[in-house]
Hints:
By secondary structure, the chain is mainly β.
Amino acid sequence: MVTTDASGNASFDVTLQVATTLGELITATATDPEGNTSEFSRRTILTNPPIANAGGPYFVEEGKEVTLDASASRDPDGDPLTFAWDLDGDGDFDDAVGPTPTVLWSKLLALGIGDDGTYPVSVRVTDNKEGVAEALTVLTVLNVAPSVGADEATVTVDESQTATNTGTFSDPGLDTVSLAASIDTIVDCGSGTWSWSFVTSDGPDQSQVVTITATDSDGDSTETTFDLVVNNVAPTATANAFTTDQATARTGNVITDDTGNGVDSDPAGANDPLTISSFTAPSNGAVIVNADGSFSYTPDTTFVGTDSFTYTITDGDGGSATATVTITVAPAAPGSILTVPDTCRGGTALLITGTSGNDTIVVEPGATTSTLKVTFNGVATTQPKPSGRIIVTGGDGDDNIQIAGAISNMVWLYGDAGNDRLNAGNGGSLLIGGDGNDQLLGGGDRDVMIGGNGADSLVGNSNDDILVAGFTTMDSRSVAGHEEFWCHVLKEWNSGNDFATRVQNLRGGASGLLPKVVDDVFADDIDFLNGSAGNDWLLLRAGEDRLAGQTEAVNYY
């Protein structure tokens, strides 16, 4: 039953109870209440809907593009198909078109597909007769480790300087990236850049390969490396100046003592401890320098003035430095009598120092065999008998220095300025008159006597003696600074060699006596040389100085 509207029109559906074939003509008859009839017919063409196939499942690495493929979709009727894709799951098929679209990573990011995981992908297939079909698959995004790079392949600095480097990093996905360095700290500067710094302290020990690691929030990481070269810097050695008294040892430490120029140092500090690698000998004494810089300097017994030695420190890494140590040796106090080390003979020496006035100094045996009686300007004292030399310096003034004949110690007597009288004992002795008109009298052993500047009288007495009318470059009117030389001369002169051999040994070579004679030392006042008994060697000026006594060798200048 169909009801018409006021205009007599009506709409209706026809349901067939039997199957029809494609193109069959269907006729229907309509009858109104009055019995009127009307027929109509329609030829209907039936179609089959398409069959959609979304392909997949798909896999794509972060940062890469993906190509979808719905080409396996088909239409049973052979109709052409159109394709539309929904990638973000919003139900709208507006994210890509075509059977095999390529979707860039930037597009995926825009659709919210930026991190690893699985996402639904749908395709809608439509034929030209409005037939529609849809299919669903999945897209799996695979995590990709971040990338990291360093701007400098090699960073070179000196120890104690700050090493720096910079670089970049990135992650193709939406991951958070953390940075780490194998040594010290690294800073994320933002915008995909980083900076690294390291305060060095010890080269080359801290030279190494530095690794920078970038790790994303999914746990994947990437490394880059660069070379860190830390150069060793040589230490600094500073000059030191010390003081001591005559015949008195001086100790200290050349590395850690600060005498005005600072201590020795190395940029690496405690990482490069300084040690002594070598040192030189001083000219007028002896020194021992230990590895830790501690030293002990002993001046020659008769030396006063400035002495020096050098030392070299090393930091253990090939760096070294050299500095000079200066030691000023002050003379013993005037009027002093001291027992000091004997650097010539070994053992001990008795050191007697005169004043600037006219002194009378007498040394004779003491009350016991282990003592001496010393009378200094009328004041007698008892002193221990030394195992080595007796050394007396008169100082300025007209001095009278007498060593008793019973004294067998080697005696070194210096008159200094003034008209002095020097009388040796019974040991091999060195007598130097100095400036002024001096009288030098040898003892019973082999003596060396040097008159100095002025009209001098030298008497060798018994045994073999060397008498020099003037002075030599090796005494300069005193022995200070040349003790080792005179020790050599006296040792040879008092040796067991015969007279001719002793003269030859002292005459020849750089250590000989004659090469050390000053050219014009004999151009002074008239000197009187008397070798007396024994074989004597006299050095004097021809036509000026007077010669007497028994002699075996005479050299005129």
